[in-house]
Prior knowledge:
Helix content is 39%, strand content 19%. By secondary structure, it is α/β, with parallel strands linked by helices.
Amino acid sequence: MKKVIIIKYGELTTKKENINLFLTTLKENIKQKLQEEQVELTYDKGRMFLIPKKEQFDSIILKLQEVFGIHEINIAYELESLDLEEIQKTIFSLLKEKDFKTFKVETKRSNKKIPKTSLEISRMVGGFLLKQLQDKRVDVHDPDIVIHIELRNTKSYIYFEKVTGLGGYPVRTLGKGLLMLSGGIDSPVAGYLTMKRGVKLEAIYFESPPHTSINAKNKVLELSKILSKYNGELKLHVIKFTEIQEAIYKNIPHEYLITIMRRMMYRIAEVIAIRGNAKILVNGESIGQVASQTLTSMKAINEVVHLPVIRPVACFDKLEIIALAKKIGTYETSILPFEDCCTIFVPDHPVINPDRKLCEEYENKIPYKELIYKAIKNQEVIKVTAKNSNDFSDLL
Ligand code: ATP
Ligand code: MG
């Protein structure tokens, strides 16, 4: 009897008009993820199937758990028939290895030509098992074991456990976004949540050498590597921000440093996004977290761009963001103590209600268009993948 992996993608099936794009993208993303496994992927109405070798199951399941768009994964036994007697006998023999007192049978049949309904099949199999296994009981509410039967075109499947997938939409189905990725806790989480909605990410990082160290950059590279597990290859744009920051520092009242600095970051990010065909900017801003994230600050900063700015963690508490960062594996890297360009130039009293007119007046004291142009021209582009031979973690 063959052991297979069934991949289910619940939420996708509601996207009637886009279903083909969703399915093709999911298939491609899974193939990409399992590139090294050399396992064939087949598709049949609402399900995908893999037939791995015995030793591949664990690693494949782990990889599938990093693919958005997959809602559930099952390890199933495949029978080349729809014969109910054979199914019953197979279940009976499989149950010998299982330790349980109560059970429940759940049947799905995508093949509606089968004369019995799903419920009738579940009852029939349940009755058979009760007769054979005298010490077991049926419990439909809280059983020790659920016996799943799926009857498809010519084959049937039996499985007992469900592995939960990440859910969401396959990355790329909704196009591209540009993530403003600092070394902090919030922005990697914001990136993860955006990828979950089917958005493929590129990232942009502003560094200010010599005020920021190579360690700070390596930290961002390491975070990019973690995000690329979900995203596929992540294109990281590294922008030298030193000159702009120093010009701001020298010429602009310090209470406006952060506001103006962030307006410059937004402007640069928007150019990089448009050039790369990204439709949105994404960042880790969270309402009220710091002076630059009051509503008035956000408005004053947001005003310099036209692309939508998505802030997935805008309404999360820090503790909620931390919990997610731990779950996705970015937290330990994010808390490494390397100075970011924002932390170095932090004024004692940043303005919390910046005035737009003043922002513009101050900005005109520096040749910011030229500086922005230069920074973009000198950008460094790094393509980061989860498998990069360079493991940045040991540089940290
Ligand atoms: P994080 O918010 O990621 O934990 P942080 O708290 O240090 O880092 P903030 O100063 O709160 O960053 O900035 C808010 C957001 O602006 C960040 O989440 C990130 O999206 C963006 N950002 C800040 N600094 C940088 C940077 N050096 N490069 C790219 N994006 C940045
Ligand atoms: Mg933050």
